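Example record used in the benchmark description.
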Amino acid sequence: MKLNELEILEDDFDIFVALNDPNKIEFLFDAIESGIEASILKQIAKLDEQYSRMPSKQIVSTEDYQIGQHRIAVTLTKHTVYLNSNSLKAIRQFVNKMTNDGLLLWPIKSKKTDFDMYRFYKAYKIIARTGPLSSN
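Model output (structure tokens):
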């Protein structure tokens, strides 16, 4: 097959446009030698390998709670809890509540960022999750 006889359909062209220049040349060469379908499958496999190596993004959830008359901002990742409040007492109460609920926490040194709008800031590493502690 010659290059001027090559017919690239709309769906195939969408993939072709997404490729960088060296991969476009490789796509055209493979399309002439092996056919469009084989060329597309090869390029999709390369793109899949490229994107599967990318690091996954960390899931972060943020909640605001009212403890008495104070607010506390809690940012939770898989292994870390960040607490930010106007009151150290509110932070201590929240940490005690999490400990009683079965989270084993270890304080870590972490600097306050521009996103932490309250005065006091504490960070804890989640060591383990266990059953709730009983006060009996």
